[in-house]
Amino acid sequence: MTGISALGIDVGSATVKVVGVDDAGALCWDALEPAQARAEVQIARMVEDARRACDTLGGGKVALIATGCGRGLVHQAVREVTEITCHARGVFREVGHGGTLVDVGGQDSKVIAIDPGGAVTDFAMNDKCAAGTGRFLENAARHLGVPLESLGRVALEAREEVRISSTCTVFAESEIVSLLAHGVAVEPIVRGIHRALILRLVAMIRSVGLVAPLMLSGGVVCNPAISDLLAAETGQKVVLPRHPQLMGAYGAALIALEAR
Amino acid sequence: MNPAAGLAYACNARVLGPAALRAARLYAERQARGGAGRSPHLAPPLRIAPRCKEMVARHWLEGRHAQGVRKVAWVTSGAPVEFLTALGFYLLYPENHAAICGTARVAVDLATAAEEAGYSRDLCSYVRTDLGSLFSGRTPVGRLPRPDLLLACTNICQTVLFWYRVLAEHFGVPLVIVDTPFVYGEEAPPHALQYVGTQIDEAVAVAEKVAGRALSAQSFERVATRSRRATELWLEILQRNRHMPAPISAFDQFVLMAPIVELRGQAATVDLYAAMLREVDERIRRGMASVREEKYRVLWDNLPIWYRLRAVAELLAERRIAVVASTYTNAWGELAPYLDPARPRESMIRAYTYPILNRGTGHKLHIMQGMIDDYHLDGVILHSDRSCKPYSLGQMDQRERLSGSLKRPALLLEADHNDMRCYADEQAATRLAAFAEMLEAQR
Predict the structure, then answer these.
(1) Which domains does chain A have, with CATH numbers?
(2) Residue B312 CB contacts under 8 Å (≥ 6 apart), including other chains
(3) B403 and A84 in contact by Cβ < 8 A?
């Protein structure tokens, strides 16, 4: 294993990720934890772990760049960079081309247009609403009694689909409760909530303008139904990086590496 | 005139109040000279800013005591007002009052009062702020005079039709509507201009009846001359920002524009903007920039976010972004070429039919394209204003064109000009920061 030359931390609403990169910019160390209420304590501990890894692996005191909605809490960082730039940088390095990146996070989703040189040319984010984000699926999973990790599989195996008309997370919950009360089976509802989320993402993709290839990142990508349904809805092949959940932190580490 | 009201007006609005405001201005000027409240990234406000503030404060103070002394007209921001000024009306702009409430951060409380009375949150936040003020009696300007006349012109939006009907019913006073047909092409058809002209004539007749005197051609021309001169000066001030670095920011303009909206037919307004232009020229000579380390220059589209003016200005300036132009402040400068003091009636018809909001989204795009070239702009911030639908309509397409063929990063920033409940600080900060990073990457 090579030494760590730069670090990136992505403090998201659902998880905190730390990534170390080597001199060549390859991802060589990472850590991921669910976000805790006492964020600063957690961040300090994770950064300390990363520093220890630097000592163990070689690298010593390396630069750290912070991203994500909690980036302002990372006092150890030399700079803050938005998750838009960081995700674009991480994914571009990973897949080696531009296109349209859809990042589906725990609390927000974003669509980022990346030019062939890797620069962000446009972006859109969901606004003041959890629809189209991981939280939307989490809430639905809880109401439906389906474990979050099985949600994608259940959606893909469903033979039928019901329409969830509410794009609002809170109203969608009421709709789910109402459908269950009317005796609708769980599987078609699960597929329906995935469709609702995908349609929300597609609307954002359209607002930026789809330039192929379509790429996906973010924790929600661990759900296999997201990429399958997005591909079906857009008619585009969806490219997935190897570590979709780490792309923000990876991009931050790459920027830290360049800034050395 | 009510003698008691007349005495109170003379004492408070003409002697004591102005003296207090003058003292406040002198204090503000002294504070500014001492460097109080200076930002590390922004230039200090113009030296003339306290004088502008004093002038606006005097106007509202006068309004507080105007009832029973002067005839009062409540008017929309785009209304043809030169004949009202010539007839001696005190003009009150509810939109400006709402903006004052917005900057004073009392708009949500007032809007809530309107919502409790049954007005939907989907209505413009200016409307809700003002109706809430009316229903609750609360206002940061002390007291609003009761109108004798209402004048609503549809050249800014259709909401004013319903807003002013509510006011007419509430106060039981005459409402004059000047309906300006939407201009789809380059020129309004002759019948549309004739239609507007007929309504202005009718408005003049009603205003004369309320004022109890006839409109003097000489006064009308004098007011039109001042209006023209003030708007010319305002446009010149804005155009000085073609200089790099820009001497004043659009955020300064948002504050300094109050007199061009509500006092534009007055001699003092002409003097104020003439002095302002001199100071702006002095800044250019001295190489003084509104954003100390100006690197990127951007355009602001739509109304400002009144309750976050300073925060957004600071956030952008920190990243060396100067907002040097705005379609909103430009809208009052655009009036200048149309106003012809020799033909006040005819020129008013054109001036008030052609505002940016009474024309197509393609026209606004054309204006923005011209500003990008003239002001050497690197990007555009499109404030998608939840309250101002006519201004926000078309911004998605405009953004696509700006970032596509013109290769200028364009950010759609969702907010509301007065309703803080529609604004999230953290989310807006992330969007603005990402926009700044886009500008940096494209340099």
Answers:
(1) 6-91+246-258 (3.30.420.40)
(2) B251, B305, B428, B432
(3) no
